[in-house]
Design a protein that fits this description.
The chain contains 5 helices and 13 strands. It is an alpha+beta fold. Helix 2 runs antiparallel to helix 5. It starts with a helix and ends with a strand.
Length: about 250
């Protein structure tokens, strides 16, 4: 192979990779209520209010059986410092490999009346290892983030933050399902815009400095912590389509 062909193949490879990871999505942000009895990571709530709607989205893809989950939760432990003082250390709970099945849901969710701290849930359809092999982001990407800190001392406008990204070319009618889901949980707001997977962007008061995979509530509104604003004063339109507002 001559040098020209080598450069040509390299260029085609890079172009294909960039194009794949630049996939276009229906990009939803869902702001949850402030009611600890309604946390999505509580096992009973997950089964009654969340799992069914996410399952409806996943089953519309050809890769539903290849869904993977990551989750972070911590258990408080009493420990003794070098100064012989007792303190609380939050130790990560090892969950192992998680799939989209009842056994995995039982592992990552939390029963009522427990001291375990839940931090984050992340779902990929297909799983990230498959996406890496295919050099293409997932058909469906979902995260659920706890907005409280370990000691629940943070002043917050909403208890949890959900990101749902549905690839446009998967041709899933996600809006109907997400709207019904938002009505079920009575979200403070559910908003939608079109966005590319790996492209940072700024629109009005909203700034996303990284790709969809790195979307967090902090810093996305006027470059500040969104919890520092009165939620009712947040401006969504015209950048966002409002799918639902709390009743």
């Amino acid at each position: 192979m001559n040098l020209l062909n080598k450069f040509s193949n390299l260029y085609n490879s890079l172009t294909k990779t960039d194009s794949g990871w630049n996939r276009i999505y229906d990009f939803y942000l869902i702001f949850g209520q402030t009611d600890e009895n309604k946390f999505p990571w509580i096992t009973s709530n997950w089964k009654s209010d969340f799992e069914t709607y996410f399952d409806a989205l996943i089953k519309k893809t050809e890769n539903s059986k290849e869904t993977g989950i990551r989750a972070l939760k911590y258990i408080p432990e009493k420990r003794i410092s070098k100064n012989n003082e007792e303190f609380i250390y939050h130790s990560e709970v090892k969950l192992g490999r998680l799939k989209w099945d009842e056994k995995s849901h039982e592992k990552w969710t939390i029963p009522d009346n427990t001291e375990i701290y839940f931090q984050n849930f992340e779902l990929w359809t297909p799983v990230w290892t498959v996406c890496e092999k295919k050099q293409s982001p997932p058909d469906i990407y979902i995260t659920i983030s706890n907005q409280q800190d370990f000691e629940n001392k943070t002043n917050i406008q909403f208890d949890y933050f959900i990101v749902i990204a549905i690839a446009k070319d998967s041709k899933i009618d996600s809006k109907t399902i997400v709207k019904e889901f938002s009505e079920k949980i009575n979200s403070k707001a559910t908003i939608l815009k079109t966005r590319r997977w790996n492209k940072p962007e700024k629109a009005g008061n909203w700034t996303f400095r990284n790709g969809i995979q790195d979307t967090f509530a902090s810093g996305i509104y006027k470059d500040k912590n969104i919890h520092d604003f009165d939620f009712n004063e947040l401006v969504f339109e015209p950048e966002w389509e409002i799918i639902y507002r709390e009743k």
